[in-house]
Write a structure and sequence with these properties.
Layout (H helix, E strand, L loop, with lengths): L1 E4 L2 H14 L5 E5 L6 H11 L14 E4 L6 E5 L8 H5 L1 H5 L4 E5 L13 E6 L9 E6 L5
Parallel strand pairs: 2-5, 2-6, 4-5
Antiparallel strand pairs: 1-7, 3-4, 6-7
Length: 144
């Protein structure tokens, strides 16, 4: 499935739809260049889960947890992970195989750890279609 958005608001709304439909154990992998909207999608997913506190990318902490929504929300940014073994120190399996919803920005950095059931989302820009244009490609049979 491919979705095209033309504003941050549309990108956020797409993420919100994903979050509202997400069940326990859902994993969303967000990949794309800097500035393509990974964190905007993550914020939308959080809103769809009913999380109202501000969501920001955990670039330096690798993970942030949010527990106020209908399901726990685990937001990973693994850009700074140099070796997937570092994820063991974080206890990633508790998050990936738990009852919450997990979002992983830059998931291609740890692709060997990603479960087959994860929803893979690739974001890209096309400046010829406008500064805020995003092409969002979703690989999953569970999102529609």
């Amino acid at each position: 499935m491919v979705v095209e958005t033309y504003s941050d608001k549309e990108t956020l709304e797409f993420g919100k739809k994903l979050g509202s439909e997400a069940g326990p154990g859902a994993i969303f992998c967000l990949d794309g260049d800097l500035g393509t909207g990974k964190t905007v999608i993550a914020k939308g997913i959080a809103l769809g889960l009913g999380i109202t506190e501000p969501v920001s990318s955990p670039t330096f902490t690798v993970i942030k947890e949010y527990h106020e929504g209908r399901l726990p929300f685990y937001h990973f940014d693994v850009y700074r992970i140099e070796d997937p073994v570092e994820m063991d120190e974080i206890g990633y399996e508790d998050y990936f195989f738990g009852d919450g919803v997990t979002v992983i920005e830059w998931s291609d950095m740890i692709q060997e750890l990603i479960p087959q059931s994860a929803i893979k989302i690739k974001l890209s820009k096309d400046m010829s279609k406008g500064f805020d244009y995003r092409r969002i490609s979703v690989e999953s049979t569970t999102v529609g």
